[in-house]
């Protein structure tokens, strides 16, 4: 690690709902000892930092403040949440052109001061913007990742937890591919207490027919849209997902999380960013895991990749 990097410092770019809530989640969970908030609206960033700082006596010691891009020079982790928000009736991919333009300004502002940290993209469409960040930043692939389907996988486990009457921490399953409409639930590897989901169904005596699985998959895929329709935006769960990724990095956990990263021939997919179960540690991405998917799941993953590829070709990357 570069000696100028503070291994416990996090920069959060964007002090909107997701950025501010992410800073709160990091603070409450004791992830990082120094957090700097950066936003075009400096008053907003300063207000959020002040509000958070006033709770300092209730959490582990942490220095939270508002700053500018030069203040992220020694940050170990740079979390990017800035960008146009998804509106009701708008898909994540509808945001492509808006946020591509924003990122073409943000990324050079980061790399001007920091070339040794890890970049974590949260802004949607997260897979395309993660790929864009990799291309613009000139960072090695292991140090550029997106929040990907970490939240989707949590939603998946949460719904199965409710359905089966088992704590979500005992449900193991992944959503892979795009963080969006073409995401892929990996039912073939989903298990509870080590028991494959098909075999667990008779134990919990719930309806686990194929159409029931599809209902759960659809609920996961559409959860974000439903929340946006009801309250205008999502930020609590995504902030917790980002905090989980940050913890894996700062604490060198070797945790398996479905972050978005550069595909290097995994299941035949290359030169784009998508989510697969990935080992995460203090170097960022240690290893992307090619798990034994079913034939249908592998095809769906490739279809998800093509879905994004068609959108990437329209961009000037």
Question: How would you sum up this structure, described in words?
Answer:
With 317 residues, the protein is of the alpha/beta class. The chain has two domains: 9-146, Rossmann fold; 149-314, Alpha-Beta Complex (L-2-Hydroxyisocaproate Dehydrogenase, Chain A, domain 2), CATH 3.90.110.10. Helices cover 41% and strands 21% of the residues. The chain has helices at 17-28, 42-53, 96-111, 126-137, 150-164, 197-204, 210-231, 236-250, 295-312; strands at residues 6-13, 34-38, 63-66, 75-80, 118-121, 144-146, 171-172, 175-176, 184-185, 191-192, 195-196, 255-257, 260-266, 269-275, 278-281, 284-288. Strand 15 (278-281) and strand 16 form a beta hairpin. Helix 1 (17-28) packs parallel to helix 2 and helix 1 (17-28) crosses helix 8 (236-250). It starts with 5 loop residues before the first strand and ends in a 5-residue tail after the last helix. The mean pLDDT is 92. Catalyzes the conversion of lactate to pyruvate. It comes from Halanaerobium saccharolyticum subsp. saccharolyticum DSM 6643.
């Amino acid at each position: 690690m570069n000696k100028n990097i503070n291994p416990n410092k996090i920069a959060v770019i964007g002090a909107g709902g997701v950025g501010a809530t992410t800073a709160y989640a990091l603070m409450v969970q004791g992830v990082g000892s120094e957090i700097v908030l950066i936003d075009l609206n400096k008053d907003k960033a300063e207000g959020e930092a002040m509000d958070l700082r006033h709770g300092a006596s209730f959490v582990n010691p942490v220095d939270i403040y508002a700053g500018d891009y030069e203040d992220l020079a020694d940050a170990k982790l740079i979390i990017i949440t800035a960008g146009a928000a998804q509106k009701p009736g708008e898909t994540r991919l509808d945001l492509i052109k808006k946020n591509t333009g924003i990122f073409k300004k943000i990324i050079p502002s980061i790399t001007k001061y920091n070339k040794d940290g890890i970049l974590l993209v949260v802004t949607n469409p997260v897979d395309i913007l993660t790929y864009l960040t990799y291309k613009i930043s000139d960072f090695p692939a292991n140090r550029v990742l997106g929040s990907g389907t970490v939240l989707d996988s949590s939603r998946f486990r949460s719904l199965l937890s409710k359905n089966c009457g088992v704590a979500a921490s005992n449900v193991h399953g992944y959503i892979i591919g795009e963080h969006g409409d073409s995401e892929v639930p990996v039912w073939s590897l989903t298990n509870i207490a080590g028991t494959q989901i098909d075999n667990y169904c008779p134990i919990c005596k719930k309806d686990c027919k194929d159409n029931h699985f599809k209902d759960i998959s659809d609920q996961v895929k559409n959860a974000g849209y439903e929340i946006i329709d009801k309250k205008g935006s999502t930020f609590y769960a995504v902030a917790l997902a980002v905090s989980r990724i940050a913890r894996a990095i700062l604490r060198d956990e070797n945790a398996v999380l479905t972050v978005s990263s550069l595909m290097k021939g995994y299941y035949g997919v290359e030169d784009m960013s998508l989510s697969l179960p990935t080992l995460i540690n203090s170097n960022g991405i240690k290893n992307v895991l090619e798990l034994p998917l079913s034939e249908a799941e592998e095809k769906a993953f490739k279809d998800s990749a093509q879905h994004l590829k068609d959108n990437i070709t329209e961009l000037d990357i």
